[in-house]
Predict the 3D structure of the following.
Amino acid sequence: MTDFAATKAMFDLPQGMTYLDGNSLGPLPRTAAARVAQAITDEWGQMLIGGWNRAGWMDLPRKLGDRIAALIGAEAGHVVLGDTLSIKLYQALASALDMRPTRRVILSDTGNFPSDLYMATGLCRTLGDGYVLKTVAPENVAEAIDDSVAVLMLTEADYRTGRRHDMAALTRAAHGAGALTVWDLAHSAGAFPVHLAACGADFAVGCTYKYLNSGPGGPAFIYVAPRHANTARPALSGWLGHEAPFAFDLDYRAGAGIDRMRVGTPPILQLAALEAALDVWNGVDLNDLRAASQALMDQYIAGVEAACPDLILATPREHDARGSQVSFRHSQAYAIMQAMIARGVVGDFRAPDVIRCGFTPLFIDAGDVVRAVGVIADIMQNQLWDNPAYQTRAKVT
Ligand SMILES: *Cc1c(COP(=O)(O)O)cnc(C)c1O
């Protein structure tokens, strides 16, 4: 059994705060500050440019990619870190479209994260030639897959409601129609077991600053299935994806395998933080993590529903149909969340009316859920949200 009291002790959480927002920005692993300080002082400070070889900086995106591969059911050697999720999504999508040259449709759903939809729209505009993004309601995705679809682009767990797509079934359906798949694992990697290889996923992307705790601005990752790794053509053909970056040739030749998905200079300080953050996973069994997160979510839903009849559950109750977050709807969701935060229970508001909390057993336990439910019950039963101070919206919600 995974020792979640031990993993909780690996995080530096502020006293008195119940942090139900690890799905937006993971907390600080205790060893990260020292690891980053070492990268700054010993590596950058003392090795300077020699750090690229002597400190292994150039290999970090692949080395840490292998550690993430183990968390998402991917083959070792087929995940690399770099850039942001929006960029990695664009890259995966462009490569996938290129592999289905006679088709013009990207199929996604209306619950997808806007950045994914914006990137797809931008790519269609750049390609011209009839490329379109088609979105349908999440529950209608399966029936919308037909032989016009080049790429099925989905986020596995819906950022707003927590609803989870069936990756295996939808990948099978896409392949049956001759389409490829791009899976966004933003709310999957580190949240529950993912089985990319077993599902036959073609491309996948995800971020590390949510459930993987790499810190604000931590790099994204990209996976390309081994069967496509040497044929996928990168649209963002930067020098570090070249077969021989230091030959400085004038013509681009894609590097071997996943290396071709690298673009430019990797963010070494962020990767150092990620390296420390990934150590937390060493003793963690992902099936234990999933069971613990389901129990926390069940406890939270039961507690909130019993105390707050005005809050409407937006997340599926069925275990397999949800990720690791629970959302409730209310017309005053923004003010309610501000009142929660003022009382030390941090989640986030998602427009237009969602109170979203993430359940991350690495550092959240049953006692935290009891506390959160108590605070929400107090706010709802005594209308504590009805305070002008909780109406002012900050830039980041
Ligand atoms: C968090 C999130 C993003 C953010 O993309 P960045 O480029 O890292 O800012 C994109 N897509 C989904 C589905 C997300 O949940």
User: Anything to note?
Assistant: The radius of gyration is 22 Å.
